[in-house]
Amino acid sequence: MPKTWADTSLFGSSHFSDQRILQQISDRKFQTELKYHCWPDLCTRGPDFSLIGKKLLSLEDPQFGQGLGPFIQEALDEQPLAPSLMRHLKTNWADVAAAITEISESYLCRSLPKAKPPAAASAAEGGLEAPSASPPSFVPISKEDDVSALALVGEKGHHYRVKKFLAEGSAGLVYEAERVDAPGSEGGGGAGGGFGSVVASLMKKKAEGPGEGEGVEDEEEGGESDEESEVDEDERQEAQARKTHSRFAKLVKKQLGRQLVLKRVKETQKDSAENEYRIASEVGDQEEGKRFCVGYLDRILETPTRLWLVLRRVNPSEHGVDLTDFINSKFFQQIGASGPRGQRHACGIVCQLLLGLHWVSSPPRLVSMRDVKPDNVLVEYDDFQDAFEAKWTDFGLAIKFDALRTPSTDQTGDALRSALVAFWYDTQKQVPKPKWVNRTPPERTYRQPASAEGGAPSPKKGDAAGDGGAGEGACENKMAAPSSYDMYMLGVICCSIATGIDWPHIDKAKIREKALELFGHGTLVSACGEGSSVRDESDPKFLASFELGAALHDGTAGVVFRKSFEDTFGKDFGSKLFALTKQMLDEDPEARPLPMDAYNTLGFRSYKNLD
């Protein structure tokens, strides 16, 4: 008879012991207890999985002979679930167990050896077991897979062809692709067999000038002197040139829009990818959304469990493809030094990001991206109008506050398991945060929607909503807007653009050295709070007490930050944005500005696509 969870496999994992499954679902690095949200009745809508894991691990002398059911039922009894849902989950405890296994394996399977037979994989420390001889419950994907011959057909009836591998992420693989049923050619690039020939044709047409029927209008008869006629002719030709240039720009942009990206999703990430497609399609479907978000165009089921997502490709400029490239190369510092003409690019990008967050978080969407960072801002340069277009991408962690996914009593089997995983994903999964520890966590930004119309009073510390302390996510209000966490992270992005430092990754030695080069040694430790024993940024405890918002308020560091903002964005815009960024990084989510309020405060109206 097994003595501990390390000796059992009641959860049915092909790779990991029950102990590893339970340790993973209980680990606070990966999930948040529901009590730390500003939304007390979330605890009634679905189970707190971390509490189930902790309960089972805490059992003394568990009697494994009775099976897993009684353990899970006992753990559910201790949670404040709605009575009908409580009965349903206890009856269908096996689906709860399956959801726990799926959630835990979505993390643990990342540590499995790649391209090694099971016999060659050694057991790791901490209870991680070598894969068993039984086949895995999923088939891993690899960039080495030959996918060029796959016949991929989307749910909208379009056919796609993979062209080349681009990148690998935690959710899957990314490829350059094309639609092969687009009008005009096999490659979807129009007549002539490809994008390059189309652009060449358009360039030739542009160089030839206006054709028949496209010339300047006939002069009206009478009255004009030769000199006036020459001036009017010059003006008309200039106007016609602008019109022809604009028409050419639109034609080329149309061709660029046919270039695509395919995301081949790992099977363990399929449910979250389906949610990503659902939300991204909603926020990016209308013309307004397309201005600020990368469009998700289609979905493809290669097999019942193998999903592909189709996105419009943002064409990289010589400076990079995402905002991180621009920040790390100090692009904005270089063009900012050239004066207002260069500074307007940085100003325009910030304004586009604000308008994008306003669009995403406003009714009826009410979406929080929960993954706002420079990597998830794609930047495209429009050389026809000398302007940058910044678009939000990656809605894999996004949630809709008015439509959180919850389990129901009419679900069983795979439907219930999927709903339980989705509930964990929307309410308990820890999302990426800055690498410093002393920051305001995203769970504080969850709020009950009815509170905006004067709902129940806010929970105080010690109430049912929990008192985890400032660093634990305890919250005394429920009025924070859906954009509040995203605005916190946008404040971090503004600091990154202003300084040319990738602050979200300040834990990396190279990034920290760039910060010390700008601020000097010992300056940033003043943002570590009163009573901190940290005396140097090299101290291992530095990130445990540093807070970026505090650095902006600090006398010495704040002066450096303010100058960086004014040098990069210009004195007027930079000083306004510096003040707004301090508000964005406020510890209280309710004190952070709304995206549109921040945009209006900046008063910037002279950039492409902003009016």
Number of domains: 3
CATH class of the largest domain: Mainly Alpha
CATH topology of the largest domain: Transferase(Phosphotransferase), domain 1
Main beta-sheet strand count, sense and barrel state: 6 strands, antiparallel
What CATH architecture label of the largest domain applies? Orthogonal Bundle
Q: How many beta-strand elements? A: 10
GO biological process, one term: mitotic DNA damage checkpoint signaling
Domain Protein kinase: 160-604
Protein name: Protein kinase domain-containing protein
GO molecular function, one term: protein serine/threonine kinase activity
Key structural traits:
Phosphorylase Kinase, domain 1; alpha+beta; 9% strand; Transferase(Phosphotransferase), domain 1; 611 residues; 3 domains; 21 helices; six-stranded antiparallel beta sheet
How would you describe this protein?
There is one protein chain. With 611 residues, the protein is an alpha+beta fold. The protein folds into 3 domains: 5-127, no CATH class; 152-215 and 248-312, Phosphorylase Kinase, domain 1 (2-Layer Sandwich), CATH 3.30.200.20; 323-397 and 482-602, Transferase(Phosphotransferase), domain 1, CATH 1.10.510. The chain is built from 21 helices and 10 strands. It has helices at 18-26, 42-45, 49-58, 69-77, 83-91, 93-108, 195-208, 226-256, 270-284, 287-292, 323-328, 331-336, 340-361, 413-427, 484-499, 509-519, 542-545, 548-553, 555-569, 571-584, 595-602, and strands at residues 152-153, 159-168, 172-179, 259-265, 296-303, 306-312, 367-368, 377-382, 387-392, 399-400. The strands form 3 sheets. Strands 1-2-3-4-6-5 form a 6-stranded antiparallel sheet, covered by helices on one side. A two-stranded antiparallel sheet has the order 7-10. Helix 1 crosses helix 3, helix 1 crosses helix 6 and helix 13 (340-361) packs antiparallel against helix 15 (484-499). It is globular and about 85 Å long. It starts with 17 loop residues before the first helix and ends in a 9-residue tail after the last helix. Residues 214-236 have a biased composition (Acidic residues).
